[in-house]
Amino acid sequence: MDFYKALQQLNTTKEDIVMTVMTGENIGSRLLLSSGEVIYTNNEDYTWDRIISGIPENKRSQTLRFDGEKIYYEFIRQRYNAVVCGAGHISISIIKMCNLLDLPVTVIDDRLTFANDAAGAGANKVIFESFDKALDAVEGDDGTFFIIVTRGHRYDQTCLEKIINKKNAYIGMIGSKLRVAKVLDTLEQNGVSREKLNKVYTPIGLKIGAETPAEIAVAIMAQIIEVKNKVTGSGTYSKELLSSILDEDCSSMPKAMVTIVSRKGSAPREVGTKMVVMKDGTMIGTIGGGCVEASVRQTAFNCIDNEKCQLVQVDMTGREAEDEGMVCGGVVELFVEPIK
Prior knowledge:
The protein has 340 residues and is an alpha/beta fold. It has helices at residues 2-8, 48-52, 89-100, 112-121, 131-136, 153-163, 177-189, 194-197, 213-229, 239-246, 248-251, 293-306, 319-323; strands at 16-21, 30-34, 37-41, 62-66, 69-75, 81-85, 105-109, 125-128, 144-148, 170-173, 255-264, 274-278, 283-285, 310-315, 331-339. The chain has two domains: 2-76 and 234-339, no CATH class; 81-229, NAD(P)-binding Rossmann-like Domain (Rossmann fold, 3-Layer(aba) Sandwich).
């Protein structure tokens, strides 16, 4: 449990790597490294230096053989958040979609009625202030999606000028091509490099012919999902997963964590995808639906009962898999570990 508490307290702007031994007599031994500093280990006697020396340079979560053992190197994905400039009709739909996606969202608007509407729609934080002052207080980081959907190009310009030099995962700005060009040209004249300006997603959103505020919000959020999911091969411990482990209501229930640690072929989910299996049969998260979950559920129960970790392989390519409804294809390795 201490490992998951350590995860919950991580500074997500740093490079966080989890190394887990998945075979041999040290199975289940684990080290959490944050920007080179050891944050947690459950096995002080294990020779971690040799494992640390083998950290993959490509920074993708993967399983490697090391001195006869299988080691899972997991690069923890940045936790994401959204900052929306403007609280009009498009923003209200964006807020609702962010809630569905478990994406914390901050909304900025200088109009009280609109700010109240954003709060009513479920924004995690609403800043009722001028855009320039509000954005001075927003730092941004590698996991921040900035969405500029204000009521006029002069406000767009103010927002973009404040945001352009902040760390971010995405900057998108609404507007017609003419309106957008004017804003970008003005910022370039004010000293912002064209290289930075060319990285702004504008006009914002995927080109799906969106017309209504809700459709435009769908196009914007689809583009953000596309950007986010290009960061493949990294693990993520969602708020939902950590809550199922650490919240008082759930902490007493025996459970196991299931993680995809390798995959071949057309397996449904990426390496690093996780779910929690509760002793009562409840499953939090998904590693691919019927394609793999039915197969690993009993293994999870056994791991809970025996208090032992297990590395299992699920083959979804054969006739037997087809009969079980595993039509996705591919082979995945799953590491199943009881949570004490």
